[in-house]
Amino acid sequence: MKDPLTQRLLFLCGLLVAAFIAGSLLSSHFLQASTVGYLLQYVPVLGVLGMAQTLVMLSGGPGIDLSIGATMSLVGLAIAGLFGLGVPLLVACLIGLVIGGVLGAVNAFLVCVMRVPSLMGTLATFFAYSGLALALTGGSPIGGIPEWFGVLSQGRFLGVPIHMWVVFVPLAVGLHVMLSMTRFGAHIYAAGNDERAAFLSGVNVWRLRFTLYCLSGVIAALAAIMTLSWFQAARPDAGEGMELLSVTIAVLGGAHIFGGIGRISGTVLAVLIVTTLQVALQLANISQAWQLAAIGILLIGSVMADNAVGDKLRARARRAAS
Predict the structure, then answer these.
(1) For the chain, how many structural domains are there in total?
(2) What backbone phi and psi angles, to 5 degrees, belong to 142?
């Protein structure tokens, strides 16, 4: 009998194939070669946010980061603002990564130190960061980004956007290795599965979760840099809706909402499914409202599948313990 997580990955592969078939039926333009490049243009930004959300969820708590899209917007504005003040763009991007980590640390402080439930704490920072982004710009984008910076997200190598090669793939591989082959990754799963047992075995659960919220902010800053390169401008609404999509991707990929279960490989497959579905619906000229409804149905189905996998794994753990 296959491991439930392996079954989940096979299910996701089947769902991806089904999404491609549905896309080809919805639009005759879907199977064109140009559609692949268009589809992959969206994958890195959504994908890195989904991976950040997966990390936060895996550590338990339960953990969630609803401010991730607002963090992305605010960091993008900060980078563009620093560049406008004369800071070299690459230096501004490095500072943006630090700012992302600081914004993530605010979430970590609320959740890990003040003991505010992650849903409420990160919802509060979502409103704070979003409001600050609008207040600083009056709702207007900040332009003036040089054309050469667009190579990151608009350039192609072997027909694939460069930010797939230099950001998305290295991050996915790095996080997979971290979770599956390092002590830190083992501690993440231990904290998500049983916080008390992890603490008694020597895992500093507080520090672990604090670190992951900070890392989530840094990854959101990476998404901001890619978006800045793509649009050649910083928009205060660049991350609007991304928080819910990142949750959908994480849960669809197999991250259990209460922690301890999930893989980065599942998150990668999930972002491909969600992106394929979005592009197919756009090419078919289906309204945004129906697109959101489709994503909602997908999320409901993924939660149901997530609960089924979680029940199997917990039952297996109880049998092993007895």
Answers:
(1) 1
(2) -110, 115
